[in-house]
Amino acid sequence: MTTPFPGVAPSPVAAVGNIEIRDLSVRFAQGGQSVQAVQGVTLDVRSGEFVSVIGPSGCGKSTLLNLVAGFVAPTEGSVSLDGKAITGPGADRGVVFQQYSLFPWKNVLANVEFGLKLQGIDKYARQQRSRQLLQQAGLAGFEKFYPAQLSGGMKQRVGIIRALAANPRILLMDEPFGALDTQTRTIMQQLLTDLWQTLGISVLFITHDIDEAIFLSDRIYVMTARPGMVKAVVPVALKRPRLADVVLSKEFLDIRARLHGLIADESLQSFRSESIAPAPQRIAA
What is the rounded distance in angstroms from the CA atom of residue 38 to the CA atom of residue 25? Predict the structure, then answer.
């Protein structure tokens, strides 16, 4: 397979980016106290698929993403990428958080090519790939700007491009558009789907926004209140490419109604649990 980015090995879409989470439980302990974050979760992201996870606050959505990123280890169960157990962070997984994690002392181009530089890609090849991705994201001409000179939406675009530039097998995104205004958020959602379809990369996306999850996803996992378990898996069979007016279609509204029904009770349960929190249990010796 050829690649439009010289010096960077292509990723065959049919072969890579498969995430398997099996019977996963995570319990955090501190000072002799224990909190069950997620329990018995089984989840898949198939190669080239866009999968979202939604659920009430505190249900373990971000914990699941951190497990795939390799930042957190499971208490029970397993997490694997393309059949290999995940035991720590790696360049085969790109991560984008809600907070803008750009290097303030580096300009846009230097930020984007940082991962490629760590991989030993020569200067010409990494700058060519970075410039092409920046152009695709509507950021051509901003290569020499610094993060402090950019809007929030532009910073997040740079963050996404930086994650993609290193040619990961899967892109992991934790509420990446949560801090943006509604108009910018809509634009970013469309940009993300365009990049995803062009590059054929797998995506695991965490969000609180039901409409966002429907617009972006092939499948949506709905989590229960803590301890987070999979309550339902909802397929999204809307045709692609999806334009902004898809949110007015009957198919979209039917999926939204189903998801609202699934989430409503869990959100109430989460609120009650946070309002009247039981005394933490000590871990048995």
Answer: 5
CB neighbour class for 212 (10 Å; exposed up to 12, middle 13-18, buried from 19): buried
Is the pLDDT score of 13 beyond 50?
A: no
Cis check for the bond before 6: say yes or no (omega within 30 of 0): no
Percentage of the chain beyond pLDDT 90 is 72
8 A C-beta contact, residue 239 and residue 50: no
Rounded Cα–Cα distance for residues 278 and 170 (Å): 38
pLDDT at 283 over 70: no
Task: Indicate the pLDDT class of residue 99, thresholds 50, 70 and 90.
Answer: confident
The Cα–Cα gap between 151 and 253 comes to 32
Average pLDDT, integer, range 170-184: 92
- Alpha-carbon gap, residue 79 to 82, rounded angstroms: 10
Tokens matching residue 158: 């740079």
Angle ∠(116,122,128) on CA atoms, nearest 5:
75
Is the full-model pTM beyond 0.85?
yes
Q: Would the CA dihedral through 118, 201, 192, 264 be positive or negative?
A: negative
**Span 148-175, mean pLDDT?**
93
Q: Angle 236-237-243 (CA atoms, 0-180°, nearest 5)?
A: 90
Question: Could you state, in order of their start, the residue ranges of all structural domains in the chain?
Answer: 19-282
Q: Report the 10 Å Cβ neighbour count for 119.
A: 15
Q: What is the C-alpha R_g of the chain?
A: 19
CA distance 52 to 213: 6
pLDDT band at 272 (very low <50, low <70, confident <90, very high): low
Q: Please check whether residue 42 is in contact with residue 24, taking contact to mean a CB–CB distance below 8 angstroms.
A: yes
CATH topology of domain 19-282: Rossmann fold (3.40.50)
Task: Please state, in angstroms and rounded to a whole number, the distance separating the CA atoms of residues 158 and 162.
Answer: 6
Q: How many residues does the chain have?
A: 285
